[in-house]
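Typical record is below.
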Amino acid sequence: MATNILGPTIRALRKEKGLTQKDLSNLTGIAQNTISNHENQNRSLDENDIRIYANALSVQVQDLYNMAEAMATKNQQMREINERQTSIDHIYSILPQLNSDHVKSVEEFATKQLTDQHETSKLVKPFSTLNEPTAEYTYDEPELLAAHIDDDATPEEREAIMEWARNRKRLRNKKD
């Protein structure tokens, strides 16, 4: 069975429009239990189903995919935030059990990690300088671009990287 990535998006759009599954069933002709299965990703969607849902929800098919991607990104970011918070909570639960010397060691280690992180970030241009292409930029200049976004990048850093990439694409399109 093919993976159904659009179910949660269909549910979110349906609820955003104030529709029940029964209402959506009346609009689409798709049985209410099938809509439930689609939304819960228990049943795959074919191209016709996707078009029917898009029409009933007054969006383009591509909008459904774009929203699904945005939701997946947001969910991944939330998982990362939750994992980070779990680690922080764990550290806080351990600290009171340590003696003063060991607490100091933890503090020194964390400070060194932060310093290393800042030093590493100095190796690349700050995001603020990447977002706005400069007038003197030429396409003949060599350019270094990371091939991935690190797992520990913040949502703001990820967005800055994506915005920079969109700006680069606009510049390339202007040149052509």
The helical segments are 7-16, 21-28, 32-39, 47-56, 61-94, 100-121, 127-131, 155-175. The two ends are 42 Å apart (CA to CA).
